[in-house]
Design brief:
Helices cover about 50% and strands about 15% of the residues. The chain is an alpha/beta fold and about 425 residues long.
């Protein structure tokens, strides 16, 4: 018998997150970049509160890349991303491609030997550096060798013209000067006369808040590993590093290998484990663990996850018996057809994070293409529309296949939950 449909409202695994952006213009009034700014709510007009700078920078980076998308935030231009000393010394900025960002060193950073070394590394790796709220203090002098842009706060002085010697000195070093916090047309004109070539402030635009839907870090990591598994040019070393960076997933990998499905073979290293499991099987396990992380939150969610696994397995075995189509692809199709409800995000947004084929995408989003029929059959069977089922698959013992799918899904979900 099919699983009973449950009126399921998923837990808030995909919360709303926010990033503000403020445009930066050149001397010809062309928008050339956006600065990305932390926001805790949609209505916030500034960072505010007592949130540590490192947390603000980390959240903004994570949401820009994983939740909203850098392209959406910058419209194809450059992103100015705030960087604390902690992020700089730890090379955490490397989650961004160097061609897409300018690393804006916050005013709290000084030119200590460790910071200078970190700046040198970043420049060698192709990153562009900017110095925020430059005030001319001598401790910043060592950094001027590595930055390309210096930002001057136009509201930090009583008269903008007082910044003339600073602008002249910086331009003499070959640096671009960005005038920020410009609030009047007069201030813009004076900044131009001083020699500034980049401009930012309320006179152009107040920061605009963009929202997105975020999954938690563990789920984001699973998405990343799934993308690596499905990319043909991913090396074994890159996969190994992805697992090594997350101990809980490494432990899950070892437990998967030691499970009965792989003969209980013991392993002592991550590369050996990856070799034993194989990329296709591991990609499937990643999906199951992702779903298990949702299902473990409540009994209702657990049943919804079980139902999705049953659908995936059912689509797979029916495809194998028909002999048309790829059973592994149909498993993924069935599973993903329920993931939008489980993770609380639209199918189209979910599929942006997963490297699925165009055929699967069309079947899931539009209900078209050769893969759509198997989803229709699963829908009809789960609704007990026996007339439609008989019309689509008159010669298959679907009851036996569905029972096997329930047994398989129950065992796999229990095992996946135990690896978390």
């Amino acid at each position: 018998m099919p699983l009973m449909e449950v009126d399921f409202t998923p837990p808030p695994t995909a919360k709303h997150v926010f990033v503000a952006r403020q445009p930066i213009f050149d001397e010809r009034n062309r928008r050339v970049a956006y600065e990305l700014l932390y926001r805790s709510t949609r209505d916030a007009t500034q960072a505010g509160g007592n949130v540590p700078a490192a947390l603000m920078c980390g959240d903004t980076a994570l949401h820009a890349l994983l939740s909203i998308g850098l392209d959406r935030l910058t419209a194809g231009t450059t992103a100015f991303v705030n960087v604390t000393e902690e992020h700089l010394l730890g090379d955490l900025y490397k989650i961004f491609p160097p061609q897409d960002v300018v690393l804006e060193l916050l005013e709290s950073i000084d030119g200590t030997p460790a910071v200078v070394d970190a700046c040198a590394r970043a420049v060698r790796d192709g990153y562009t550096l900017a110095l925020d709220d430059y005030d001319g203090r001598p401790s910043l002098d060592p950094l001027l060798e590595y930055v390309s842009i210096v930002k001057l706060d136009m509201l930090a002085v009583a008269d903008v013209r007082d910044l003339a010697p600073t602008v002249t000195s910086l331009r003499g070093r070959g640096l671009k000067v960005l005038a920020e916090r410009l609030e009047t047309a007069e201030a813009v004109q004076i900044a131009r006369e001083l020699g500034c070539t980049l401009f930012q402030g309320y006179v152009y635009s107040r920061p605009e808040t963009i929202d997105g839907r975020a999954v938690d870090v563990q789920q984001a990591t699973v998405f990343r590993i799934m993308a690596l598994l499905n990319a043909p040019d991913t090396t074994d070393r890159a996969l190994e590093e992805a697992f090594r960076s997350h101990p809980s997933l490494s432990l899950s990998l070892l437990r998967i290998v030691n499970s009965a499905a792989f003969g209980g073979r013991g392993v002592e290293s991550i590369p050996h484990a990856l070799q034993l499991v194989g990329r296709e099987a591991l990609s499937r396990w990643m999906l199951i663990m992702l779903m298990a992380s949702v299902g473990s939150r409540s009994a209702v969610a657990h049943e919804a996850v079980l139902s999705a696994l049953v659908r995936g397995r059912f689509c797979e075995t029916v495809t194998a018996h028909i002999g048309l189509g790829d059973p592994a692809a149909r498993f993924l199709l069935g599973l993903l057809s329920r993931m939008d409800a489980l993770l609380g995000m639209p199918k189209a947004e979910l599929l942006e994070r997963l490297p699925v084929s165009a055929e699967l995408r069309h079947a899931l989003v539009d209900g078209t293409g050769p893969d759509a029929a198997i989803l229709a059959l699963a829908d009809d069977y789960e609704r007990a529309d026996w007339h439609a089922v008989e019309a689509q698959a008159p010669h298959l013992e679907l009851s036996a296949l569905y029972t096997e799918a329930v047994t398989w899904a129950t065992e796999r979900l229990a095992r996946a939950t135990s690896t978390r």
